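[AMINO ACID CHAIN]
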Amino acid sequence: MSGFLEGLRCSECIDWGEKRNTIASIAAGILFFTGWWIIIDAAVIYPSMEEFNHSYHACGVIATIAFLMINAVSNGQVRGDSYSEGCLGQTGARIWLFIGFMLAFGSLIASMWILFGGYVAKGF
């Protein structure tokens, strides 16, 4: 399987070095937009609490806050290259990023709990 993509030389044509973070942020934004579009559509189609529990939106809200926190910090701020001012400087940027990742993984775990508790194992 290691020789499967050796003939493909697409990565040499495009320099992803400086644009990697921008492309990743745009892709993450598109995925979040699509997720919110689907959840708002489900809330409109099933307006009663018996059909769709609207408290399940909390995971999406927390994940969106985490998404904004993570994308607000650049690599230079975490490394200390371009950020020396502010409340805590480089340490503050790292703490901000860590809290953003904690919120993101917490919302992911909570959404899995809702999936299995509310839908998969509902009849048991």
